[in-house]
């Protein structure tokens, strides 16, 4: 029997007012913070599941990865005293031998106090109107989550993974940028499996986002007009859903941060609509 501690806070606030100039506005916001920590696993050391592991003192599904300290330089590659893995070249990950035993294996992996579950969630509903015209909508987001995107970035063609233009532009380029070892990703190679065989913190990406979930612009027909048609009210509107997302995830990878999945699924649809709301 294990123990898990969950803690957090949730706050909701609302405010509405009509000014002397006839501008009415209503705001409703919410914010929550939630975290968890494993306190006890009953004395059992659980085996890792892919890139995550349950360990006392860390959150559920915390990442369990190799530590990378950037990329191997050409000078290091040519240095006869520098230890290289089989097939490793300059531009590949510089995996750290954490226990200093001269061998790179699972004993060199480290726990990272991060998981795919966000810690913060927030949202805001708003509506502003002036006489018969108005605009309203909702923004929402989350922060504190991290996604492991090894497969999504293609691992440099290795193991049959696909690849995106973003990966090419952000990977080490031995031809056009030989001296630039500050790229986001290691080199791209058809046959290289070093980067996929040693999953590391190189492929952890911050999945925080803010999304304009929906927006509506409307015009309420005058009461003098609706009464003639035996209607209590009528409103013409134009609206859109999933209009824009601000995210730290590479947009070209096609990953929806709201789902917290490390692979691209069906594209998020933008929906535009035009209509008439009538109340009799």
% residues in beta strands: 35-45%
- The span between the termini is 60 Å
Main sheet strand line-up = 1-2-8-9-12-13-14
Sheet with the most strands?
7 strands, antiparallel
Query: How many alpha or pi helices?
Result: 4
Describe the structure.
- By secondary structure, the protein is mainly beta.
- It contains 4 helices and 14 strands.
- The protein has helices at residues 74-78, 165-170, 194-197, 223-228; strands at residues 3-18, 23-40, 52-53, 62-65, 68-71, 93-95, 110-112, 120-130, 133-143, 146-148, 204-206, 209-220, 233-247, 271-279.
- The strands form 4 sheets. It has a 7-stranded antiparallel sheet. A 3-stranded antiparallel sheet has the order 3-4-7, with no helix packed on it. It has a two-stranded antiparallel sheet with strand order 5-6.
- The longest helix has 6 residues, at 165-170.
- The mean pLDDT is 88.
Outline of this structure?
The chain is mainly beta and 280 residues long. The chain has helices spanning 74-78, 165-170, 194-197, 223-228, and strands at 3-18, 23-40, 52-53, 62-65, 68-71, 93-95, 110-112, 120-130, 133-143, 146-148, 204-206, 209-220, 233-247, 271-279.
Please specify the SSE layout and strand pairing:
Layout: E1 3-18, E2 23-40, E3 52-53, E4 62-65, E5 68-71, H1 74-78, E6 93-95, E7 110-112, E8 120-130, E9 133-143, E10 146-148, H2 165-170, H3 194-197, E11 204-206, E12 209-220, H4 223-228, E13 233-247, E14 271-279
Antiparallel strand pairs: 1-2, 2-8, 3-4, 4-7, 5-6, 8-9, 9-12, 10-11, 12-13, 13-14
């Amino acid at each position: 029997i294990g123990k898990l501690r969950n803690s957090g806070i949730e706050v909701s606030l609302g405010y509405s007012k009509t000014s002397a100039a006839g501008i009415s506005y209503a705001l409703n916001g919410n914010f929550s913070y939630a975290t968890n920590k494993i306190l006890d696993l009953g004395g059992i050391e659980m085996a890792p599941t892919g890139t995550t592991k349950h360990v006392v003192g860390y959150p559920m599904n915390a990442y369990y990865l190799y530590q990378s300290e950037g990329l191997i330089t050409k000078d290091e590659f040519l240095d006869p005293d520098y230890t290289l893995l089989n097939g490793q070249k300059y531009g590949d990950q510089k995996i750290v031998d954490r226990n200093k035993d001269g061998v790179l294996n699972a004993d060199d992996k480290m726990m990272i106090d991060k998981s795919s579950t966000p810690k913060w969630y927030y949202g805001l509903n708003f509506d502003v109107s002036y006489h018969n015209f108005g605009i309203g909508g909702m923004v929402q987001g989350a922060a504190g989550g991290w996604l492991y995107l090894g497969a999504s970035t293609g691992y440099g063609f290795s193991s049959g993974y696909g690849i995106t233009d973003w990966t090419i532009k952000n990977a080490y380029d031995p031809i056009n940028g030989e001296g630039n070892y500050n790229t986001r990703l290691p080199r791209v190679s058809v046959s290289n499996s070093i980067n996929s065989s040693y999953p590391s913190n190189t492929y952890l990406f911050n999945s925080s986002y803010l999304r304009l979930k929906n927006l509506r612009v409307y015009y309420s027909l005058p009461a003098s007009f609706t009464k003639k048609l035996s209607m209590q009210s009528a409103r013409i509107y134009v609206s859109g859903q999933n209009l824009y997302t601000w995210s730290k995830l590479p947009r070209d990878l096609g990953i929806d941060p709201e789902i917290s999945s490390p692979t691209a699924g069906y594209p998020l649809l933008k929906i535009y609509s035009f209509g008439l709301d009538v109340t009799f």
